[in-house]
Design brief:
about 450 residues; alpha/beta; Urease, subunit C, domain 1; TIM Barrel; 2 domains; eight-stranded mixed sheet; four-stranded parallel sheet; 16 helices; binds zinc ion
Length: about 450
Amino acid sequence: MMPLRITLLVLVLLMLSLPDATAQEQTHLHCGTLIDPGVSSEALSERTVIVENGEVVGVEEGFTLWEDHAVDLRSSYCLPGLIDLHTHLSNEFEQGGYIDRFRLMPTDMALQAARYAYITLMAGFTTVRDIGGSEGVDLSLRDAINRGDSAGPRMFVAGQSLAVTGGHADPTTGYREDVVGNAGVEHGVVNGEAAAREATRLAIKRGADQIKITATGGVLSLNADGTRPHFQEDEIAAIVRTAADHGLKVAAHAHGDEGVQRAIRAGVASIEHGTYMSDETMQLMIDNGVYLVPTITAGKSVADSSRIEGYYIPSVVEKAQEVGPEIQEMFARAYGRGVPIAFGTDAGVFRHGRNAVEFEYMVEAGMPPMEALYAATVSAADLLDQSEHLGSLEAGKIADIIAVPRDPLTDISVLSEVTFVMKEGVVYKRDGQPTADYLHAMQR
Ligand SMILES: [Zn+2]
């Protein structure tokens, strides 16, 4: 048997060596202020977020004595990584963008998309729901990011949006039939319940995480009308039921009231835009727990672009000026009535990386900053069915953490000045500068 004094000495040495052993794996983030809407409706001062193996293992009051592996964010405001529920990372619309699909190879689009994804991540959006991709670019990009071949937000993708013949997402709408032909189920164009089921199953076969439909006309497609209903209710219901068989939700792009109502009655999980919703429709959303994903930025930006001579063709200019400015007013009404709201921007319709501007529009329309942040964290994770992993900084959740230099509760615009980005424990941005951490990981 070991003499007592030696036993004690061994114990002391063991205890001394403990912090060093775990220090290799843990990172301690010393946050001057922590704003975590899922945990507290108040800002929390002086918190340490402890990260290990890409997960949050705990949040402690005060700053831990952990010099070597601490990240000094004592003068910053930390938040959970932001979630944008409505992006299109496959493309970015710019003047003359209508010829891109005749000019760019899918490989060109994919390489551009990699940059859009990187910019989005650096803007503090660590997760996106990408709803409406082209040529499978969104599916490949999601997988490349998950493998660590490319840096970007965690993506939940829809693949090609489903549309009716001549609808908003029919890729041949507005072009000469003798040149581009007509699109079928393989391009997401659906007529009737059987085709609706087939297109949904095809999207799932290709790897979609959710299904996107265009329930009404839209602004940027080459159609004179942007608001009338497109799908009939039985077609949407067939899509929703088929998606549900595989555990997938359906998101419906919709501007006009009738199209929104049909989509809600057919069982979709979210309405995107929702521009002309009546009070009755808003009540239907509340009763059915359907989220509104407002995309105010899209409305404002298309209205702005439409004032630039020659930016869009005349029919789109008209729609952009009519529909665009309405969204913020509708949002104010929806918020006032208590419609469930989850954050989404439609980035890609405007420049990627400017996603946080949406917060300013939400606050301008009367939503308190803490609630706007709740929409981009807790509610967004809920709509994604990811509440177990995302949306707040609690033990067991994925370590997606960002920081800004000023208090977003008093100046919401600071969310466009993200200085620190950690995704799944890897630091991509520090002191406002990109880090090379993920590049090192690529040299595996
Ligand atoms: Zn969109």
